[in-house]
Write a structure and sequence with these properties.
This protein has 399 residues and is α/β, with parallel strands linked by helices. 48% of the residues lie in helices and 13% in strands. An eight-stranded mixed β-sheet has the order 1-4-3-2-5-6-8-7. It starts with 14 loop residues before the first helix and ends with a strand.
C-alpha cells in the first residue's frame, strides 16, 4: 500500500487525484513485478540460449544482455510501460501541488522565518550555479528537475519530489520515504557501538528524507546537509522542522564544499546521489569527502550495487535507468569499482567496507541485527530492487 505524505507539509489530494495516484502506484507494482518476471522469462527461454549458441558462452555483461533483449516483445512492452508510468508518477501529483502551492510556499516560508523551533537552519547562496548535469536533464523524468523555481521563495520542486516518491515507492521506502537513512544509520550504530559521531554531513541531500534519520540515530550529533537546488533545500528545512529534527541545510556543490574553518566531520554520507553525477564529479566528491572527514571518520554511500557485484542479467536490469529514465551517468557510475573510487581519493584500501543492510521498515529490527555480524555481501534479487524484502547496498571507508 502506498504511504502518502503525512507530515505537516502534506497537501491533500482531491478524491479523483488520490484515485489517480493509487492507480499509478499499483501500475508500477504490476510493471516491476509481473512484467519484470515476463521479461526475465523471455531472457531465460530465448535470449540467453541464443547468445550461448552464437558465442559459445554465457553473456559476459549487462551490455550483451541488453543487446539481446532489444528484440524481445516482453522487454519493449516493459520499457514502454515503465517510461510512461514514470511520467505518470509526477503527473498524478502535479494538480494537487499546483492547487495548494501558494499555501505550501507560505507554510515553508513561515517555518524558515522562525526556525521552526527545533534549532535547524537554512543558508542559500544565490552565487551557486546549477551544474549542467542537473540543468540539462529532467532527472527521473521529473518535470523541471530539482532546481526549477516558479517564483520567489518557491518550494514546488521539493513538494513534487516528496509526493511523487510516495507514489513511486509503493510504500517500500517507509512512512516518510526515509527507510534508507533509517536502516543504515541504525546499522552503523549497532555495528560500531563505540563510534559516537558528533558532526555528520549528507552530500546531495535533496529534501532530506535520508538526512533526518541520522539526527534521530545520533541525537548528540550536529547534522549538516548540502545540495545545489534551492527549492529542495527550502522544503527540506521546513520538512525537518515539522518532523522535529535539527538539521543545518546549505546550498553548496558537494564537489566544492565551503565550510571555512569549521571542524571536520565524523560521518559523511550520501544516498542515491553519486549515480547522478558524471564520473569526473564522482571522483571530486570522493576527494572532498576525504578532505572534510576527521581522522577516524567514516564515509558511507548508499547506491544500487555496482556491476562488479552483479551477474549480467541484474546489471542489465539495473542499468535500464541510464538509457530510459534521464539518468545518463547511471551506468558509468555502476561500472566504477567502489574500492577504486575510495583509494583514488586517498582512503586506505584496507579500510574499505561494503554492507548489505535489510530494510528496517520491511524486514524488521531482528533481521537487521542479524546482518550486522555477516561478512557476506552477496547481491541477490532483493538487493536494491523495489520488492517486499528489499535490502540496501552501501559502501565506504574509514579515514
Amino acid at each position: 500500500m502506498t504511504d502518502y505524505v503525512r507530515h505537516d507539509l502534506r497537501i491533500e489530494p482531491a478524491r479523483d487525484e488520490l484515485s489517480r495516484q493509487r492507480f499509478v502506484s499499483e501500475m508500477r507494482r504490476h510493471i516491476l513485478g509481473d512484467l519484470a518476471r515476463e521479461m526475465r522469462s523471455a531472457y531465460d527461454k530465448r535470449v540467453e540460449p541464443a547468445i550461448v549458441r552464437e558465442k559459445g558462452r554465457a553473456p559476459e555483461d549487462g551490455v550483451e544482455v541488453h543487446r539481446g533483449m532489444r528484440g524481445e516483445r516482453a522487454y519493449r512492452f516493459y520499457s514502454a510501460m515503465r517510461v510512461n508510468c514514470q511520467k505518470l508518477v509526477w503527473r498524478s501529483v502535479i494538480p494537487t501541488i499546483e492547487r495548494n502551492l501558494k499555501d505550501l510556499n507560505r507554510k515553508v516560508a513561515a517555518t524558515g522565518a522562525n526556525g521552526g523551533g527545533h534549532g535547524g537552519s537554512l543558508r542559500l547562496d544565490p552565487l551557486v550555479q546549477t551544474p549542467s548535469y542537473v540543468a540539462n536533464h529532467d532527472v527521473h523524468l521529473m518535470p523541471g528537475c530539482y532546481h526549477t523555481e516558479y517564483g520567489h521563495g518557491d518550494a514546488a520542486a521539493g513538494a513534487l519530489y516528496d509526493n511523487g516518491t510516495a507514489v513511486f515507492s509503493m510504500g517500500l521506502f517507509g512512512n516518510e520515504r526515509d527507510d534508507i537513512g533509517t536502516s543504515i544509520a541504525r546499522f552503523v550504530s549497532l555495528k560500531f557501538p563505540q563510534f559516537h559521531p558528533l558532526r555528520i554531513l549528507d552530500m546531495g541531500c535533496s529534501i532530506g528524507s535520508n538526512t533526518v534519520p541520522w539526527a534521530g540515530a545520533f541525537p548528540e550529533a550536529e547534522v549538516h546537509a548540502v545540495d545545489v537546488a534551492a527549492p529542495l533545500l527550502r522544503y527540506a528545512h521546513a520538512r525537518a522542522e515539522v518532523l522535529g529534527a535539527r538539521v543545518h541545510y546549505r546550498q553548496m556543490d558537494a564537489a566544492q564544499c565551503d565550510f571555512g574553518s569549521e571542524p571536520g566531520f565524523d560521518i559523511i554520507w550520501s544516498s542515491m546521489f553519486l549515480h547522478e553525477l558524471p564520473p569526473k564529479q564522482v571522483r571530486a566528491v570522493f576527494r572532498e569527502a576525504h578532505r572534510l572527514l576527521r581522522p577516524g571518520g567514516l564515509m558511507l554511500h548508499m547506491e544500487l550495487p555496482p556491476n562488479c557485484r552483479t551477474v549480467p542479467y541484474e546489471s542489465f536490469y539495473f542499468d535500464w535507468d541510464s538509457y530510459y529514465n534521464q539518468e545518463p551517468y547511471y551506468k558509468a557510475f555502476r561500472d566504477m569499482r567502489p574500492i577504486d573510487c575510495c583509494a583514488a581519493a586517498g582512503f586506505d584500501e584496507s579500510k574499505f567496507m561494503e554492507f548489505i543492510v535489510p530494510s528496517l521498515a520491511r524486514n524488521g529490527e531482528q533481521e537487521l541485527r542479524d546482518y550486522v555480524s555477516r561478512q557476506d555481501i552477496t547481491v541477490d534479487e532483493n538487493t536494491g530492487r523495489l520488492v517486499p524484502s528489499i535490502r540496501w547496498y552501501c559502501f565506504g571507508a574509514w579515514k
